[in-house]
Design a protein that fits this description.
The complex is a heterodimer of chains A (about 300) and B (about 375). Chain A has about 300 residues and is an alpha/beta fold. Chain A is built from 9 helices and 14 strands. Chain A folds into 2 domains: about 10-120, 3-Layer(aba) Sandwich (Rossmann fold), CATH 3.40.50.720; about 140-295, 3-Layer(aba) Sandwich (Rossmann fold), CATH 3.40.50.261. In chain A, the strands form 2 sheets. In chain A, strands 3-4-2-1-5-6-7 form a 7-stranded mixed β-sheet, with helices on both faces. A 7-stranded mixed β-sheet of chain A has the order 9-8-11-10-12-13-14, sandwiched between helices. In chain A, about 60% of the residues are buried. Chain B is α+β, with helices and mostly antiparallel strands. In chain B, strands 7, 8, 9, 10, 11 and 12 form a 6-stranded antiparallel β-sheet that branches. The longest helix of chain B has 17 residues, at about 165-180. Chain B is elongated, with a radius of gyration of 26 Å. Classes of the chains: A alpha/beta (about 300), B alpha+beta (about 375).
């Protein structure tokens, strides 16, 4: 098994006719993902290398039974596209777009939560990869193989870095979830941890956080109360000065809140081991799995 | 984007939030003219984005034109905690009977706007929150529903606002929420919100005596009039140069220039360099799919900081291709001719090709390292040499 996406995922891409949209849709299809349709208003009836394009999500869903959407449109159109996908009944929406206005994210988050029909991953995220099954987004699949480590992260490249070291140690992944670097992610650490806890193929979870907000602190509480599986963590941004946005819109220390040190302390106080470097956390994961395999973990 | 006090007040006035009558001024002459028009006593206020202006001598009450002139002369050009004063705000002096605090905050934890009100205004609200959390009334607003009149009344009664001003305070909270939504702010704060002595109609009035507004940069495309408010004088020259070139750059205090791809990886690179006892000079995310000209541009920005003694490139290619980064670096070296050593760690997509290009180019003063941790140790060593 895996979480969120697998062989049964039927993907419809919003913005499929754009340069990036086309490139990544085809890349996802090459990986084995069922990319069943795309949406670009005004280009209905065309196709992208055989993938049919529709004017609206409603048409695309009714014609191709899409159950997942990937959002690749520019920031000013992204909130509307997410809401359209939700209105058309798409269960999983993965928003790659970076730079969506914060108030748009707030409206979208609250509308989706109120209706309770769809789950949003992102925005400003690299997507989701279940190795050997499906890839929705821009995660470079070459660095990951099938296995039993779940990964959930606010950062893309940092995930590839950590995943690569885990693969070099001989381990693979159940699913890699990029929840994104924005202030209002549709899905947070705790949501993904809950899914990994219930997934029989996931034995251990690597959680990769960064400065800003309190999602890591909330995850620490959740892990202590609800997780039976081991979780190891890495936090980026110990050297980030307060009041400066470090690339990701959500990565900002406000006054004394949201620091990396406070997050690492919160996790460690709940018994979660925190790696000092990306390599360190990958090695920590590998050593725990190795110990489990040989039955030496207490 | 943080607004100056007067920019925030002008925004307030547009939405009907009561503020004292005032005018901005960039010269002493403008300041005196503004003061004469407004009448005396008036307040001459330094416009810089930092707290503690009053203590630093940046806020003075002028009783007449001579005083207005001497205060304007003293405050313009003054240095307040590292920021130079380029603008003044001249406003009618207010009589104050009580100082309250009000704010609307983008609460990312609850995913809803948070409205706060306290009768303990005029001081640092974080201090009030620590020492007397009960003194602050708080309420989350459903962003799909918006701010209702009852929200305002609840905050006023829970916050212990004087009964005679419940109506105007409540109305002001509604207007501040309107500013927050309409202008797409992430913070609207009034400290102090003042209660005046009774006016001609016998009633006490409520005014915003300060304004702290942070706007969402990602929403500025919908607010071109606000985009023009950017306070260029407060921006660091390197940060401005990077912004003009579309790079994500944050200046830091150290001497090791850093470039990487992806915000998380760059943040992590800063940490790993700091763990190796080095001190990063900047954060620079060259972004996904970094192309050659972006790399050249980035190298120029990093080296425009004279403190930089060595530079670390940390690339893990996913979408970014190692050969593209290598080509960019080779072009950058041809264009810029750096005088400081570079350490390159290049892993991921097309890493072999990238490394081959680099070794063939045989760039002066460039070392490659296979791992992130090793590269960090090496660059610290070179910066010290």
């Amino acid at each position: 098994m895996s979480i969120l996406i697998d062989e049964n995922t039927r993907l419809c891409v919003s913005g499929i006719t754009g340069r990036e949209g086309t490139f990544h849709s085809l890349r996802n299809r090459d990986y084995g993902t069922q990319v069943v349709s795309g949406v670009t208003p005004g280009k209905g009836g065309q196709d992208v290398e055989g993938i049919p394009v529709f004017n609206t999500f409603h048409e695309a869903v009714s014609a191709t039974a899409a159950n997942a959407a990937m959002i690749f449109v520019p920031p000013r159109f992204a909130a509307d596209s997410i809401l359209e996908a939700e209105d058309a009944g798409v269960e999983l929406i993965v928003a790659i777009t970076e730079g969506i206005p914060a108030h748009d994210e707030l409206r979208v988050y609250n509308a989706l939560r109120k209706n309770g029909r769809s789950r949003l991953i992102g925005p400003n995220c690299p997507g989701v990869l279940s190795p050997g099954k499906a890839n929705v987004g821009i995660i470079p699949a070459a660095f990951f193989k099938q296995g039993n480590v779940g990964v959930v992260s606010r950062s893309g490249t940092l995930t590839y870095q950590i995943g690569n070291v885990i693969a070099q140690q001989g381990f693979g992944n159940s699913t890699i979830v990029g929840i994104g670097g924005d202030p209002v992610p549709g899905t947070d650490f705790t949501d993904v941890l809950e899914l990994f806890e219930a997934d029989p193929d996931t034995e251990l979870v690597v959680m990769c956080g960064e400065i800003g907000g309190d999602a890591e602190e909330r995850a620490a509480e959740f892990i202590a109360e609800r997780m039976s599986k081991p979780v190891v963590a890495y936090i980026a941004g110990f050297t980030a000065p307060p009041g400066k946005t470090m690339g990701h819109a959500g990565a900002i220390v406000s006054g004394s809140r949201g620091t990396a040190a406070a997050k690492a302390d919160a996790l460690e106080s709940k018994g979660v081991r925190v790696g000092r470097t990306p390599t360190g956390v990958a090695e920590l994961a590998a050593s725990l799995l190795g110990a489990e395999a040989t039955g030496t973990l207490p | 984007m943080d607004l100056l006090e007067y920019q925030g007040k002008q925004l307030f006035a547009r939405h009907g939030v009561p503020v004292p009558n005032g005018r901005p001024a960039q010269t002493v002459e403008e300041a005196v003219k503004a003061a004469d028009e407004i009448g005396y006593p008036c307040v001459v206020k330094a416009q810089v984005q930092i707290g503690g202006r009053g203590k630093a001598g940046g806020i003075k009450v002028a009783q007449d034109g001579t005083e207005a002139q001497s205060y304007a002369e003293a405050i313009l050009g003054m240095d307040i905690r590292g920021l130079t004063v380029h603008e003044l705000w001249i406003e009618r002096a207010s009589q104050i009977e009580a100082e309250y605090y009000a704010s609307v905050i983008f609460d990312r934890s609850e995913k809803a706007p948070l409205v706060m009100l306290s009768t303990k205004g005029g001081m640092d609200i974080e201090q009030v929150a620590d020492q007397d959390p009960e003194a602050i009334a708080r309420l989350h607003v459903d962003p799909l529903l918006g701010f209702q009149d009852f929200h305002g009344r609840r905050l006023c009664f829970e916050g212990g606002v004087d009964a005679d001003v419940v109506r105007p305070v409540s109305a002001m909270l509604g207007k501040l929420y309107e500013v927050f939504i309409a202008e797409e702010a992430t913070l609207v704060e009034v400290n102090p919100m003042i209660v005046t002595p009774p006016m001609e109609d016998g009633r006490r009035a409520v005014r915003a005596l300060d304004a702290k507004v942070t706007l969402d940069d990602n929403a500025l495309f919908r607010h071109p009039e606000n985009a023009a408010l950017r306070d260029l004088s407060a921006e660091d020259p390197q940060e401005r140069m990077a912004k003009e070139r579309g790079l994500t750059y944050v200046k830091l205090d150290g001497d090791i220039g850093i470039l990487g791809n992806g915000a998380g990886l760059v943040m992590s690179t800063l940490d790993v360099v700091a763990q190796a006892d080095g001190s990063p000079a900047n954060f620079l995310d060259a972004g996904g799919g970094s192309k050659a000209d972006a790399i050249t541009s980035a190298v120029e920005v990093i080296l425009s900081n004279p403190k930089v003694k060595a530079v670390l490139f940390n690339i893990f290619g996913g979408i970014t291709r190692g050969d593209e980064v290598a080509k960019g670096l080779i072009e950058a070296f041809a264009a810029v001719k750096p005088q400081v050593p570079f350490v390159i760690r290049l892993e991921g997509t097309n890493q072999e090709e990238g490394q081959r290009l680099l070794s063939e180019a045989n760039l002066p003063n460039v070392v490659t390292e296979p791992t992130m941790d090793g590269a960090a140790r090496k660059v610290v060593e070179l910066a010290r040499a």
